[in-house]
């Protein structure tokens, strides 16, 4: 039976037991959201505007920034709407749409980090052929491949959400829609929707991590073969920002998985807080990491903010 999504609603949840403090909780969240928008927006503007940053490494960084912006803009409206206005209702269609983008962009982020590892691998293993191997066309194809892989892999479970009847409580456990939350409310056989995401995580996110790990093993092997200590340090330094972003992303993934798997008796607010950490910490930290560790980005930011004063 096809569900009539025009009349059915889910109810979002903020921080249970802390409803009176929602306005105060919204302040740090708003600061984080604005910081994410400004940080990643600045990166995208610099990479588009500065011709010295028109290189494969920065194109992949732009993909990462765009992904982080996408995650933020997908969750921000319902989170702030609930905390500011106590607007809890969300239609099924809008909920499924939001869940699709949240889960798709999570897979995209993993894929972009893998593409960035490939970029560093080529840059260090074949520096003389770097630009000829990673042409603009190839970078674009990699980006489209990452996006297509994520979009198609998430689609089957989201499409099935439209078919389920929802006869239980319509209260979700977060201020945004997640697939694992929605299927708990379905009165139907959800075996496929329970097993398929596990396969996707193992086949994509875990596989991405293993390939990234192997790439850095080969990178380290190449770097150790460089005679000059200064050149070794220079080569490794180009990877530091990417390694930090990998750690930020996968540590939050492991943390969230650990809480859901072993923290069943932990207060609900712990689970909810960890979900915010998962969705907000990487997008917040990635621009900070690249701004601190990448001289070209630093120089671009200095030029950007010194421009109004030079005109004056």
Overview of this protein structure:
Keywords: Cell membrane, G-protein coupled receptor, Membrane, Olfaction, Receptor, Sensory transduction, Transducer, Transmembrane, Transmembrane helix. It is found in: Cell membrane; Membrane. InterPro entries: GPCR_Rhodpsn, GPCR_Rhodpsn_7TM, Olfact_rcpt, OR51/52/56-like. GO terms for molecular function: G protein-coupled receptor activity; olfactory receptor activity. Putative odorant or sperm cell receptor. The chain has 312 residues and is an all-alpha fold. It has a single domain (9-306), classed as Rhodopsin 7-helix transmembrane proteins (Rhopdopsin 7-helix transmembrane proteins, Up-down Bundle). Helix content is 76%, strand content 2%. The protein contains 10 helices and 2 strands, in the order βααβαααααααα. It has helices spanning 22-49, 56-85, 92-125, 130-133, 136-161, 179-182, 191-224, 229-262, 268-293, 295-311, and strands at 9-11, 89-91. Strands 1-2 form a two-stranded antiparallel sheet. Helix 1 (22-49) packs antiparallel against helix 2 (56-85) and helix 2 (56-85) runs antiparallel to helix 9. It is globular. It starts with 8 loop residues before the first strand and ends with a helix. The relative contact order is 0.14. Mean pLDDT is 89; it is low at 1-7.
């Amino acid at each position: 039976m096809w569900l009539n999504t025009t009349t059915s609603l889910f109810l979002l949840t903020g921080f249970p037991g802390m409803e009176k403090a929602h306005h105060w909780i919204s302040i740090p969240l708003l600061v984080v959201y604005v910081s994410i928008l400004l940080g990643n927006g600045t990166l995208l503007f610099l990479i588009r505007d500065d011709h010295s940053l028109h290189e494969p490494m920065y194109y992949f960084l732009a993909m990462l920034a765009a992904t982080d912006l996408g995650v933020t803009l997908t969750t921000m409206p319902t989170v702030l709407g609930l905390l500011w206005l106590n607007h809890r209702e969300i239609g099924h269609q809008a909920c499924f749409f939001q869940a699709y983008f949240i889960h798709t962009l999570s897979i995209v982020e993993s894929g972009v980090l893998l593409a960035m590892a490939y970029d560093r691998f080529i840059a260090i293993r074949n520096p003389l052929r770097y630009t000829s191997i990673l042409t603009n066309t190839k970078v674009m194809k990699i980006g489209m491949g990452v996006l297509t892989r994520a979009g198609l892999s998430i689609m089957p479970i989201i499409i099935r959400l439209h078919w389920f009847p929802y006869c239980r409580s319509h209260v979700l456990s977060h201020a945004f829609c997640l697939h694992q939350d929605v299927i708990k409310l379905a009165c139907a056989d959800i075996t496929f929707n329970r097993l398929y995401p596990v396969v996707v995580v193992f086949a994509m996110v875990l596989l991405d991590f293993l390939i990234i790990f192997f790439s850095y093993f080969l990178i380290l092997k190449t770097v150790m073969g460089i005679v000059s200590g200064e050149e070794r340090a220079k080569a490794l330094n180009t990877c530091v920002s990417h390694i930090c972003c990998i750690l930020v992303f996968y540590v939050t993934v492991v943390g969230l998985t650990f809480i859901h798997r072993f923290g069943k008796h932990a207060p609900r607010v712990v689970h909810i807080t960890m979900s915010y950490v998962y969705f907000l910490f990487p997008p917040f930290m990635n621009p900070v990491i690249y701004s601190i560790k990448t001289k070209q980005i630093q120089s671009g930011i200095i030029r950007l903010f010194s421009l109004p004063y030079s005109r004056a």
